[in-house]
Here is the input.
Amino acid sequence: MEHKTIVIKKLVLDVLKPLDPSIIDMAAEIAGLSGVDSVSITSIEIDRNTESVKVLVEGNDIRLEKVKTAIERLGGVIHSIDEVVSAKRTTEKRK
Here is the structure.
């Protein structure tokens, strides 16, 4: 018997973060999460103390809550979820 679950394959987030840590450090933190294959962060605007960035996360089973926790741990906040790609994953159920 097959069991289908929905997984997130791609997220694009609008994030406001402090200038420190750098986008390199933030990308490394998110990339270290299970289910994440790659992270790309683009700086959109820099103010005196903050930076607005677009965060692209790709993987085979991205957990939004884990990504959110990693961003918040680094002092950032998600302003919006701008894009999501999800897919069905089929697994065999054992009898």
Remarks:
- The chain has one domain: 2-92.
- The mean pLDDT is 93.
- The longest strand covers residues 2-18.
